[in-house]
Design brief:
The protein has about 140 residues and is of the alpha/beta class. It folds into two domains: about 5-65, Signal recognition particle alu RNA binding heterodimer, srp9/1, CATH 3.30.720.100; about 80-135, Signal recognition particle alu RNA binding heterodimer, srp9/1 (2-Layer Sandwich), CATH 3.30.720.110. It contains two helices and eight strands. A hairpin with a 2-residue loop joins strand 3 and strand 4. Helix 1 runs antiparallel to helix 2. The longest helix is centred in the N-terminal third of the chain and has 12 residues, at about 15-25. The radius of gyration is 17 Å and the shape is elongated.
Length: about 140
């Protein structure tokens, strides 16, 4: 059994998840929009383009997501998606792409006692991230 990350967005789910798939080398699975629902009672509040459910595959992990209406959306808190790039160049590439126009930078990329590069930020879509490249500091 593996956990699945499920993210909620304020109307920009397709844009955010497409960005994540492109940056992280993922693949977009099914995208189900509000307009795809066969009966009006099953629709969520919002227009036809709102994403009811979609998934991307990142390696062996699945990340799922949907849009929420403004009144149902809650800012994510109490977690971060952690990514471990395999090289310094990959860390820098991913950080540049995900942290562009970030809502907040909690820790700019820097060396720590456990990693050659580490960073924490909340991207422009509201998703909190941690990037960790251990490099030569990886435990033996």
């Amino acid at each position: 059994m593996e956990p699945t990350i499920y993210l909620f967005f304020k109307g920009n789910c397709l844009e955010a998840m497409t960005h994540y798939a492109e940056v992280l080398g993922g693949e977009i699975g099914g995208v189900f929009r509000n307009g795809d629902v066969p009966d009006p009672e099953s629709r969520m509040p919002g227009g036809d383009d709102m994403v009811m459910n979609m998934a991307i595959t990142l390696g062996s992990a699945t990340v799922m997501a949907s849009d929420n209406s403004e009144d149902m959306y809650d800012k994510p808190q109490g977690f971060r998606i952690s990514i471990a790039p395999t090289s310094r160049a990959e860390f820098d590439r991913i950080h540049a792409a995900l942290a562009k126009e970030a809502q907040s930078i909690e820790m700019a990329p820097e060396e720590t006692f456990w990693a050659e590069r580490f960073a924490m930020f909340t991207d422009r879509y509201g998703t909190p991230w941690m990037l960790n490249f251990t490099g030569a500091k990886a435990p033996d």
